[in-house]
Amino acid sequence: MSRRGLAGVAGVVGAGALALVLAACGSSGPSSKGGTGSTTHPKHTTTSTTKPSSATSTTATTATSGTSTTTSGPMVTATLPLVVCQTTSGVTTTTADLPGSVSVSVPASDASAGNLAVYSDETGRLMLIGPTVGWTCTGSFGADGSGLMALAPVGTSVPTSGTTWHLPASSSVQAIVAMESGGSPVQGAQLVCPLFSVAKAAAQQSLGQSCAGSPSQEKVSRISSVAVGFQDPAGVAGVGFPSGGQNSANGVGLYQPKPTEPTAYLATCTLLPSQRDLCTAVLNHFVATFG
Question: Does 56 reside within a domain?
Answer without folding.
Answer: yes
